[in-house]
Design a protein that fits this description.
The protein has about 150 residues and is mainly alpha-helical. The chain has eight helices and no strands. The chain has one domain (about 5-145). The two termini are about 30 Å apart.
Length: about 150
């Protein structure tokens, strides 16, 4: 997976948790990268208890792992952001929404993952849903402000 896309997915999940009072931080790109390297080290050394705690902090697999996604949605089920792609994009800053190719693009991408837990017992449908998500990912730009900083800004 593209590390920048992974970071963007992390930020969006973190913002949703913050908006619901279930999170306390959004790591900078540099902080996230350091912890991501630590995650690799923990996985290589088999330190799985520490890995699990770090995965929670990194929101690792929140969108792509159906079991983590199901738990994430359960924790945030009353969030108004799940109502529609446009409602979901209320988590983005105006300049981030302006970087999308069309309104609702990011929301459609993230809401598209909601199908995955329900398709676990239907492997062909699950694979098709993953292909559709990969296609949406290719079309979705890196929209976070963290990727669009200008010198002196």
């Amino acid at each position: 997976m593209d590390p920048y896309r992974e970071y963007q997915d992390y930020v969006v999940a973190s913002r949703l948790l913050l908006a619901r009072g279930l999170g306390r931080e959004v790591l900078s790109l540099a902080q996230y990268a350091r912890l991501r390297l630590k995650r690799l080290e923990l996985a290589r050394s088999g330190r799985f208890a520490e890995l699990e705690a770090l995965d929670e902090r990194l929101r690792y697999g929140y969108w792509t792992n159906p079991l983590r996604l199901k738990a994430f949605v359960e924790r945030t089920k009353d969030a108004p952001y799940w109502a529609s792609p446009e409602a979901f994009e209320a988590l983005l800053f105006p300049e981030e929404r302006a970087r999308l190719r069309h309104p609702g693009q990011a929301g459609a991408y993230y809401l598209g993952f909601l199908r995955l837990p329900h398709l676990l017992m239907a492997p062909l449908a699950f694979e098709e849903a993953l292909r559709e998500q990969e296609e949406r990912a290719r079309d979705l730009p890196l929209f976070l402000n963290a990727f669009h900083r200008v010198a002196g800004g």
